[in-house]
């Protein structure tokens, strides 16, 4: 689960991290009132969307010459003007895709006089089974370019969670950032605070870009992105309450109600599979046969009729879907039960696109018989390769 910048900053502030003052706003009036509470004379008005690259983004409605979603204002009047420009409009950044995201919230924050911008992020590094802190002296809006052309300017420090954060980790972070004197001390302290926050809140990613050295000699977090391990959210109702569903894909929200793991993709073959590994393999083999999956969908172990029906409905809501491939292994759930679910669901949703079904596992023959005797134009497949070839061919034939 992702949250907004202002929410992440409020959470980090509780761990002692240095954050410039700021106030969220949903309307132009609130933005003005927020600015009045800040010391000024410099303010920054920031679009709050679940995507980065806002500074270099463009508003669809404002034309190519307009500025992006992070604006430096020199007066309250400018805060008001920028808030008017941003609210309700659609910001397109390298991370939003072409559709962009509508800006419904702003964050009005203190303008900081910046001496230098740094980069610092934390993530769970599955390769080493440790937490990693990734730091660079080259922070700011071009970090992707730095990673691409000068990767040696990025340092990774790993921390064994069994050992926990030790002072030498803090020193390594401060050293990699080439900081000396008091700033070096601040960086060590910050690294420890971030580690504590990351673990305590079950984060899976925390990115600070930029972390800045202010003209006053303070290390401050100017931008941060934070995401949480969804499997641990039950332990953090306060964090779960920060979820902003308007930032999420409606089909993905609907899927989560039925405990279906669904992620929309750009292709035209809808997939309904049980098990994430099998779902990945199914997507791969569709690509191998020359088409593209319209989604990732894992219906999970207990795929009953209700879940299968919900899954069909979610897949079919996507206007790009020209055919569906069902690939289910009947282990816990027997194939005949799944077949009954598929038949009932297909009738229920008035299925109008080709459907190829591959079943394997317990009671597979009974399952296949149910599909064959259903009177529905379901194409049965024998194995994964056969299933992929058949659905690709069916979709081409229908086109
Ligand atoms: P994004 O990463 O989405 O583009 P940022 O919050 O990182 O958004 O803002 C982009 C740039 O704007 C930063 O790299 C920084 O140079 C500048 N900036 C952001 N917040 C402030 C602030 N409070 N004071 C001064 N400059 C800021
Ligand atoms: Mg940033």
From TrEMBL:
Q: List GO terms (cellular component aspect).
A: cytosol; succinate-CoA ligase complex
The keyword Metal-binding is assigned to this record? yes
ATP-grasp domain sequence ranges: 9-241
Annotated ATP binding lies at 46, 53-55, 112, 117
Recorded catalytic reaction(s): these are: succinate + ATP + CoA = succinyl-CoA + ADP + phosphate; GTP + succinate + CoA = succinyl-CoA + GDP + phosphate; (S)-malate + ATP + CoA = (S)-malyl-CoA + ADP + phosphate
> Which EC number(s) does UniProt give?
6.2.1.5
Q: Provide a GO biological process annotation.
A: succinyl-CoA metabolic process
| Cited SUPFAM superfamilies | Glutathione synthetase ATP-binding domain-like, Succinyl-CoA synthetase domains
The EC class name is ligase
Record's subunit section? Heterotetramer of two alpha and two beta subunits.
Q: What does this protein do?
A: Succinyl-CoA synthetase functions in the citric acid cycle (TCA), coupling the hydrolysis of succinyl-CoA to the synthesis of either ATP or GTP and thus represents the only step of substrate-level phosphorylation in the TCA. The beta subunit provides nucleotide specificity of the enzyme and binds the substrate succinate, while the binding sites for coenzyme A and phosphate are found in the alpha subunit.
* Name of the protein this chain belongs to: Succinate--CoA ligase [ADP-forming] subunit beta
What lineage does the source organism belong to?
Answer: Bacteria, Pseudomonadati, Pseudomonadota, Alphaproteobacteria, Sphingomonadales
């Amino acid at each position: 689960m992702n949250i907004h910048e202002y929410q992440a900053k409020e959470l980090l502030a509780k761990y002692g991290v240095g954050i410039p003052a700021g106030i969220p706003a949903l309307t132009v009036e609130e933005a003005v009132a927020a600015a009045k509470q800040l010391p000024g004379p410099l303010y920054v008005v920031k679009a709050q969307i679940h995507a980065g690259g806002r500074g270099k983004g463009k508003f669809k409605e404002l034309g190519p010459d307009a500025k992006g979603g992070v604006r430096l204002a020199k007066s309250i009047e400018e805060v008001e003007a920028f808030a008017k420009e941003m609210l309700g409009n659609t910001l397109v950044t390298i991370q939003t895709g072409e559709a962009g995201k509508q800006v419904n919230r702003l964050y009005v924050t203190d303008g900081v006089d910046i001496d230098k911008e740094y980069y610092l992020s934390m993530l769970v590094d599955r390769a080493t089974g440790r937490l990693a802190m990734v730091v660079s002296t080259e922070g700011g809006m071009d970090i992707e370019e730095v990673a691409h052309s000068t990767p040696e300017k990025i340092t990774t420090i790993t921390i064994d969670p069994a050992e926990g954060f030790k002072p030498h980790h803090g020193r390594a972070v401060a050293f990699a950032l080439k900081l000396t004197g008091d700033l070096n001390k601040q960086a060590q302290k910050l690294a420890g605070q971030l580690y504590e926050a990351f673990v305590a809140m079950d984060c899976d990613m925390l990115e600070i870009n930029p972390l800045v050295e202010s003209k006053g000699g303070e290390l401050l977090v100017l931008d941060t992105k934070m995401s949480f391990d969804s499997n641990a959210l039950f332990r953090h109702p306060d964090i779960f309450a920060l979820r902003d569903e308007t930032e999420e894909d409606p089909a993905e929200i609907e899927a989560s109600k039925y405990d279906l793991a669904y992620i929309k993709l750009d292709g035209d073959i809808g997939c309904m599979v049980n098990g994430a590994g099998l779902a990945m393999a199914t997507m791969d083999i569709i690509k191998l046969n020359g088409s593209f999956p319209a989604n990732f969908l894992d219906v999970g172990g207990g795929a009953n009729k209700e879940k299968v029906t919900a899954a069909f409905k979610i897949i079919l809501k996507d206007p790009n879907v020209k055919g569906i491939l069902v690939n289910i292994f009947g282990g816990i759930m027997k194939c005949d039960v799944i077949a009954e679910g598929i038949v009932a669901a297909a009738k229920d949703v008035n299925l109008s696109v080709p459907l190829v079904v591959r079943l394997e596992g317990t009671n597979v023959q009974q399952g296949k018989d149910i599909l064959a005797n259903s009177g529905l134009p379901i194409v049965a497949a024998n194995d994964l390769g056969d299933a992929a070839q058949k659905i690709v061919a069916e979709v081409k034939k229908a086109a």
